[in-house]
Amino acid sequence: MTEIIQRGTLLLSEPFLADENFVRSVVLICEHNEQGSFGLVLNKETTFQLTDVAEVNLNLPIPLFVGGPVEINTLHFLHAQGGDIQGGIPIADGLIWGGDFEEMRVNMLSGKLDESQIRYFIGYSGWDTGQLESELDEKAWIVYNRNLTNLLQIEHHQLWRTLMNELGGTYKEMANYPLDPSMN
Fold first, then answer.
1. pLDDT for position 179
2. How many domains does the chain have?
3. Is 105 within a domain?
4. What are phi and psi of 97, to 5 degrees?
5. In which domain, by residue range, is 161 found?
6. Average pLDDT, integer, range 146-173
7. Per mean pLDDT, which range of 20-24, 74-78, 177-181 is the poorest?
8. Distances (CA, A) of 25 to 66, 72, 131
């Protein structure tokens, strides 16, 4: 039986998923409809800063994350600024996807928005019609449909393990599996 996927659903990769793009990843679904699904990997930080890919006049070291392997020449952002940035799409629990980039920059410069309330991504994760459902049937993903409040506050390198622990039971055990099963 396929789990319900909707805007705001988190997908946690199963512990031994072999696809290097999604090892121990947490993907936030930003759009899911009959044409397919769009999401952003929340916990894969790059070695780049926002200023390496966009002309923004911010005096802050703002890290970039890999949103996924699709169109890595695109820039996306999630924020917890609410309605203060025009054009953003509400995802869940105060999380907004995108919006007016210049407004976001002004809000950061004025201190209305700090770097802990926003995350920038290059690329995204995408699935064609039925593809995500097939991957769910194959047990490649664990569906997390719980409270997302303060999601951006969790350290990215602990996010997968933290959410697996929150699911409890077998998932809590899986959270401690080694990356290489032969090391168990």
1. 75
2. 1
3. yes
4. -100, 120
5. 10-179
6. 91
7. 177-181
8. 11, 17, 18
Q: What is the pLDDT of residue 182?
A: 61
Is 6 within 8 Å of 26 (Cβ atoms)? no
Domain assignment present for residue 3? The answer is no
Collect all residues with Cβ–Cβ distance below 8 Å to 177 and sequence separation of at least 6.
15, 16, 184
pLDDT tier at 1, thresholds 50, 70, 90: very low
- The per-residue pLDDT for range 36-69, each reduced to its tens digit, is 999 999 999 999 998 888 877 777 788 999 999 9
**CATH code for position 121:** 3.40.1740.10
What token pair was written down for 130? Answer: 């039925």
Domain assignment present for residue 156? The answer is: yes
How is residue 5 written in tokens? 């996927």
Closest CA to 97 of 154, 40, 26: 40
> Looking at the domain assignment, is residue 1 inside a domain?
no
What's the whole-number average pLDDT of the chain? 88
46 membership: H or E segment, kind and range: strand 45-49
Which own/partner contact pairs does 44-53 have at CB distance under 8 Å and 24+ positions apart?
A: 44/156, 45/156, 45/157, 46/122, 48/122, 50/120, 53/122
Rounded CA-CA distance 100/155 in Å is: 26
Q: Percentage of the chain with pLDDT > 70?
A: 93
